[in-house]
Amino acid sequence: MRARELHSGWTARPAGGPTPAALLDRLGPDAAVAAPVPGVVHQALLGAGLIPDPYLDDNESALAWIGLVDWQYAVRVVPTPEELAADRLELAFDGLDTVASVLLDGEVLAEVANQHRRYRLDVTGRIREGGSELVVAFRSPVRYANAQSLALGPRPRPYPMPFEAIRKSACSFGWDWGIATSTSGVWRPVRLEAWSTARLAEVRVVAAAVEDGGVVTADIEVARAADAALAVELEVAGAVASVELAAGETTARLRVELDAVERWWPIGYGAQPLSDVVVRLRADGEPLDRATRRVGFRTLRWDTDPDADGRPFQLIVNEQPVWVKGVNWIPDDALFPRVDRARYERRLRQAASAGVNLVRVWGGGMYEDDAFYDLADELGLLTWQDFLFACSAYPEEEPLRTEVEAEARDNVSRIAHHASLALLNGNNENLWGHEDWGWKTRLDGASWGELYYYELLPSVVAELASHVPYTPGSPFSPDLASHPNDESTGSTHLWEQWNRQGWESYREHSPRFVAEFGWQGPPAWATLTRSLSDDPLTPESPGMLVHQKALEGNQKLSDGLLPHYRVPRDMETWHWAMQLNQANAVTAALDHFRASAPRTSGAVVWQLNDCWPVTSWAAIDGDGREKPLYFALANAFAPRVITIQPRRGADGTGAFVAVLGNDTGDGWEGELVLERRDYAGAELAASRMPVVVPARGSVTVPIPDAVAAPGDAASELLVARVGAVRGLWFLAEPRDSALPPPRFEVAAASVDGALEVTVTAETLLRDTTLLVDKLDHDATVDSGLVTLLPGEAHTFRVRGAGDADAHAVADPRVLRTGNQLVS
Asked: Membrane-spanning regions, if any (predicted)?
């Protein structure tokens, strides 16, 4: 097997549709521009300086014509003598976006219509010795989707574009956090592969932990150019198994047993040892082809057996229940090929550093590149992969049904060996939508995707990856008689808080597992001001509204803030208030959900990341900067936490409880101190008791009325602490409190390449946070949302802040507190 990348020399040209005349004039007679491959046409046009950055201002609208145009990619392919001498010569496309004809010297090799599939085209004897012209002629995705919507019939969906009528990433047509790019291009690698006799067509590897040992099985399919006898070999950890394939045979199963293996664990539960698996194909002792996979040995299941409270959705790894600390993942760039391994690593390491142990790949995006799952294996980040159906009814008719099966088979085979893969999920919110969103009436008997979620996809998973758990959707009730979003059974999405109720109402819910919930906030100030040129910049200036995609998003921001803080009138303070409220909302929810363990077995925050600069639910913005929400995740997902919750103890006493959560493998013992203090720091009442919190467990302690009952709620708070771990509860909302103007001292020193900033509180400081991007656009900080009582200090580690000093850090635009929003 000889594989050669075909990534250089490509051009792209418009081939039909509303290309602006001015652009055609600049392109010249050939109307062609050099095109990066892998890439999409936006990248080609940007690289040539022919279009403005679509992420700035309202350039999205100015560039909408790109999705209405047919684009032609072309490259000259000159074969080597060795390639021409091979038995077979094939073009291997790892991804084409999306509807295209593939032509060689004008002859159609294939018609394709699925962004989420790989394609292999036989060009044996078709490529000329002196070279041939390879063309991929893409049809406008917008016009194709509209035409298919007419052909298949309309289906309910949340946005105007009929993304359900085309097997293309739904969010490429825009979402309530996403830009509409409607891309076209050769978006994943393409190769010319030459081989003789036979090659490995498919390799599916499964690693299983069995007692102290492990078993690796490999299901092999070979493609043949000759009926020669073949040998297939499987090697892992020095153990080898082999099998002979007689002439004409094309499938084999191999098995290796290992007496002792180290278990793979999620982050926070143990190590992540990985083993290389090698599969070799030979004929007459000569090597023909090889494939490698990395595997980890572990057991994994989701417990959904009925209990006294309904049906749980409890993840169990190596027979250890895991409290899921999750985030939802969307494509990290709206121009997908710009996300490389380094970008994946930065983002996933950010997730791991925030205490995350599971990343859910949402169903309106894509099946991510192999590098994503490789890194998740290495970092111990469990992955939950949605099949690509989101928030819409999907036609089950052809040609979509065949395409859905093909993409499912392709991607399940590609990713199922990963130790990190914890779940394959049929769709996002479609079961819920069918029940509650008026679909039944609007469908009027038309198909909506039920066949995919309950028949086709589970059958593919059972055939190709029976070791991977499958659920039909999210939210989903394992008790099929229950509503899909019934919080007493299975997974739940909570969106009424953001849409209508306010974040304080999270505490009214006790779901078994929360797969989506979240709150909006603007991106970092540096990101915002880089992407918008509004003058003046205001919450509702033109660019701000372009970069706010949620329905009535700004109004919901204000409505959600007002119970807690007043809406500021100057832009920078508004920006801080909305970022802080986003962080406080998610903190309240996560603290409540974690305090509800083990009934609640996990929470997956919407969302980790953004794909462009936008006001959204993300913790990391479109430029990769961490918002205050990021520190809310880190604080709530810490290994050991104490939260104070407004609920009575089991004996009916107390208006508040302290909940101690211990997500470590060791027991936690100490003295629990319960206090009521005033804002000056004085102790008003206190209670002390010994506590023992078991490993991976929690303890709930009622706070005595004598401690909890306030004398002056506006100026008092509750404190619960064991050693350095503590939780706080303010007895009045900030806007109704006596929160004083912030006073503090700042000291800064350079230590090991970082700026160590120590903030010492002279007054109570609520949610102290450094907006370090205002010091330098590349600056980062290690912590945030730190509340300090008078006399307390906290040291922040800041990197990349240039020559910033204590005076620069103390700038009230940089050193932010909740106090500033009250006083």
From this structure: none
Answer yes or no: are the C-beta atoms of 60 and 179 closer than 8 Å.
yes
143 exposed, middle or buried (CB, 10 Å; 0-12, 13-18, 19+)? middle
| Domain limits for position 103 | 2-193
Residues 356 and 633: beta-carbon distance below 8 Å: yes
Burial 349-361 (b: 16+ CB within 10 A, else e): ebbbebbbbbbbb
CA dist 350 and 652 (Å) reads: 42
Q: Phi first, then psi: what are they for 137, rounded to 5°?
A: -100, 105
SS3 labels along 5-68:
ECCCCCEEEEEECCCCHHHHHHHCCCCCEECCCCCCHHHHHHHCCCCCCCCCCCHHHHCHHHHH
Q: Is residue 370 a part of any domain in this protein?
A: yes
- The answer to whether the CB of 393 falls within 8 A of the CB of 443 is yes
Q: 125 CB contacts (<8 Å, ≥6 apart)? A: 89
Domain end marker among 693, 708, 736:
736
Q: In this structure, are 115 and 230 located in the same domain?
A: no
pLDDT tens figures, 664-716: 999 999 999 999 999 999 999 999 999 999 999 999 999 999 999 999 999 99
Q: Is residue 406 helix, strand or coil? A: helix
Q: Which pTM value belongs to this model?
A: 0.96
The verdict on residue 550 lying in a domain is no
- The answer to whether 451 and 403 have CB atoms below 8 angstroms apart is no
> Do 163 and 228 share a structural domain?
no
**74 and 207 within one domain:** no
Give Cα separations from 445 to 426, 573, 641 (angstroms).
21, 51, 51
Q: Do the domain assignments include residue 301? A: no
Is the domain of 214 the same as that of 226? yes
pLDDT in tens, 403-428: 999 999 999 999 999 999 999 999 99
Same domain as 346, residue 269: no
Which residue type sits at 690?
A: P
Question: How many domains does the chain divide into?
Answer: 5
Burial class (CB in 10 A: 0-12, 13-18, 19+), 651: exposed
